[in-house]
Amino acid sequence: MKGRVVVAQKKAQSTQKKTAEAKGASTSAKKPAESVKAAPVKSEPVTKTEPAAKAEPAKKTEPAAKAEPAKKTEPAAKAEPAEKVEPAKKAEPAEKVEPAKKAKPAAKKPAAKKTKPAAKKAVAEETKPAEPAAEAAPVAEQPAAPAAETVAAAEPVAEPVVEAAPAQPQYDTPRRSVAFIGSECHPFVKTGGLGDVMYALPRELVKQNCDVRVILPRYACIPQKYQDKMVYRGEFYMDLGETGRSYYVGIMEYIWDGVVYDFIDNQEFFSAGNPYVGLVEDIPKYCFFSKAALAALNYMNWIPDIIHCHDWQAALVPVFQKTLFKDSPVGHAKSVLTIHNLRFQGIYNIPTIRYWTGLPAEVFNMGALQQAWRDANMLKGGLAYADRITTVSNTYAWEIQTPEYGEKLEDHLRYHSYKLRGIVNGIDYGMWNPATDPALAVNYDITNVLERKPQNKLALQKELGLVEDEGKLVVGLISRLTNQKGLDLVNAIVPQIMDGNTQVVVLGTGDKEYEDTFRYYENAYKGMFSACIQYDESRAHRIYAGADVLLVPSRFEPCGLTQLNAMHYGTLPIVRETGGLKDTVEPYNVFNGGGNGFTFDRYDAGLLLDAINRAKTEYFTSRYHWDEVVQRDMAKDVSWTNSARQYKDLYLELTPW
Ligand code: ADP
C-alpha cells in the first residue's frame, strides 16, 4: 500500500508523460494486432522458427491434444475469445498457441535460470505473430483451448527448486487448496502490510492443512537472488481485452517452505523499478495480471478450491472468473477478496478498463464496476463478484460501511455486508522474534527483557546520535509518512512532548511536508530527536527493540502491523482507537494495571498528547506496573495461528464437502 502512495507522488511527476506513454502503449498494442493479421500471410517468420520447432512441435502438439487440452484450456479459451474474437478466432487461436510452442523449445532452459530470457520472450511475442500462420491448421481443430494446452504439454517443466518442506503434522480440518493472488509479497517485493500478509498467511495456512500457491507478478525489481531461484514452469499466449494482441504469459516458479510461488512473467508490464508506478500504467498492468493469473491456473491444471485475492490490483479476478472464465476449470473455484486498505481502489474511465479487460458490458453497471457514471472501479467490481469479502480487522469491517471510512463505497459494502467479515492480521514469529532477531544489539525474551531492553535502547541512541541515557523515555514512530497515519497530530505536539526526559525516533518516508517537518525537529532538538527519512527494515527492528513506546495515531488503520511488532518486542503502543488498532490494543487501566498500551478516540492532537502524557506518568512514576505491561505485551498472542484458522474456517464454509 505504501508503494501506492509513494508512487502516487512520483506518478504525479510523470503522469503526463505516462499518459502519453499509455497512448503510445495502446497504439503499440494495436499495431501488433495489425501486424498479426498481416503476419499470417507471411511465411518468413515461420521459416526462421521452423528449424527449432520442426522436430518438437510435432511431439508437443500431439500429446497436448490428447491429454490436458480438453479440460484446461478449452474453457478458458472459450470464454475470452468467444465473445470478442470469435469471428477472427479461427485465425488467432492458431497464432497464439503455436507461437508459444515454437519459441519455447529454444528459450526454455535458459529462461529457467536467468531472468533475461524472459524479456527476450516477451519481445519475441510481439514479433511472433507472423509465425502462427504456419501452424494455423493444427491449432484450428481446437480453437482457443489449444493455446494453453499445447503450451502445457510442451513444457514438461523443469524441476522447481524446493527448499525445506515442513514436516506435516496431524490436521484437525480437511485439506483445501488455495491460490493467493496479489501484487506484492515479502521478501520478493514489499511496500507495506500487504507484503507481510502475503508472506506470512500462506505459510501458516500450509501448517493448517492447506495446499497454497501464491501468484505474483514477476517484477524486474525482485532481487536477483530470488530471480535466480525461480524455475521456468511454462508459458502461453493470451488475448487481452480489445487490444487485438496475443500476450506472452510466462510462469516462473519457486517453492519455499511448503508454499509454491508462481511469478507471472511479461516484461512489457513488469519491468519498472517499482511495483506501482501510477494508474496510467498500473491499470493495464493489473488487468493483465488478474487475467493471466487465472489463465495460468488453467494452464498448470491446478484448480484450487479457493481463489483468495488481495486489494484492487487483484480485484478483477472474481470478475473475470465469473464472466470470461466461468466455463473454464478455474471458474468453479470459490473466491475471497480481502481489503487491506479501502483507500486504493483502481478507478479509471470505463473505456480504458473495457479496452484492457474485454469484460462484457453487463459488468460495467452501477451494481458492479461502474462508479459515478463515467468511471469503472476495479475494487468495487471485485466486491460485487467475490463469494466472500474480508478485511483485516473487525472494527474496520464495520467502519468501512460508514461514510467516514467508506471511501465512497460504504453503500456498496453495506449492500454486500452479508458476505463481509473482519479477520485481524498477525505477525510472523520467524521474522519478528527478539530472541533471535539478528538485527538487534542484544537478543532478549520475556524472561530477561527488563535487563536487556535498556541495552538495546542505549545501542539505538548511540546508532542515531542521541544522548545515551537509558532513563529517557524513547518514543518510536515507524510509518509511511502520509496523511493516513496521523502525522499532523504528531507534528502539532512535538514541542510539548520534548521535556528533556523524552526522545523521539522517527523512521519513514513519504510526503515531503512530513519529511521536512521531522527534519526540522531533529535540528531543533539535537540529541533528543532523530528523523530517519528512509526505508530500513533492519533499523525498524532496532527501533522496536530500543524504544519504550510506539506511536500509531492513524486517521484510519485497517489493521496496522507496527503496534503488533511493538508489543511483541515489549514496546507499549500509543494508538488511536480505530480499525485494527482498536481491536489489538486494550487500553491501559490505571486501577487494575490491565491492558496493553495507551489509547485515545477522536482524531485530535490534544487527545494524542494526553495519551502520551499518561504513558509518561506511568513510565516515570510507576515503573513496576509499566514493566508488567511490557511482559504482558510480549506474552500476548499476535501470531498468525489464530487468524489463519479463521481464514481456514472461511474456506471450509465456502467448500462444505
Ligand atoms: P501500511 O501497510 O499501511 O503501511 P502496516 O502497519 O500495515 O502499515 O505495515 C507497515 C509495515 O511496514 C510494518 O512491517 C513496518 O515495520 C514496516 N515499515 C513501515 N515503514 C517502514 C520504514 N520506513 N522502514 C522499515 N520498515 C517500515
Features:
6-stranded parallel sheet; 26 helices; Starch_synth_cat_dom; disordered N terminus; alpha/beta; 10-stranded mixed sheet; EC 2.4.1.21; Glyco_trans_1; binds adenosine-5'-diphosphate; 657 residues
Give a quick precis of the structure:
With 657 residues, the chain is an alpha/beta fold. Helix 2 (44-66) crosses helix 8, helix 3 (73-84) runs antiparallel to helix 8 (145-154) and helix 18 crosses helix 21. The chain is globular and about 70 Å long.
Instruction: Give the overall pLDDT as a whole number.
Output: 81
Which small-molecule ligands are present, each listed once? adenosine-5'-diphosphate
- Beginning-to-end CA distance, first to last residue: 36 Å
In DSSP terms, counting alpha (H) and pi (I) runs of 4 or more, how many helices?
26
Give the helices and strands, then pairings.
Blueprint: H1 2-38, H2 44-66, H3 73-84, H4 86-89, H5 91-113, H6 116-127, H7 132-141, H8 145-154, E1 162-163, E2 176-181, H9 193-207, E3 210-217, H10 224-227, E4 231-239, E5 246-256, E6 259-265, H11 267-270, H12 279-300, E7 306-310, H13 316-322, E8 334-339, E9 347-349, H14 350-357, E10 370-371, E11 375-377, H15 378-385, E12 388-391, H16 394-399, H17 410-415, E13 420-422, H18 449-464, E14 473-478, H19 487-497, E15 502-507, H20 512-524, E16 529-532, H21 537-546, E17 549-552, H22 562-568, E18 572-576, H23 579-584, E19 598-600, H24 605-621, H25 623-635, H26 641-654
Bound molecules: adenosine-5'-diphosphate.
Residues 1-2, 192-193, 196, 478-480, 507-509, 535-537, 540, 559-562, 565 line the site of adenosine-5'-diphosphate (ADP).
Catalytic activity: [(1->4)-alpha-D-glucosyl](n) + ADP-alpha-D-glucose = [(1->4)-alpha-D-glucosyl](n+1) + ADP + H(+)
Biased composition (Low complexity): 1-17, 130-152
Domain Glycosyl transferase family: 468-618
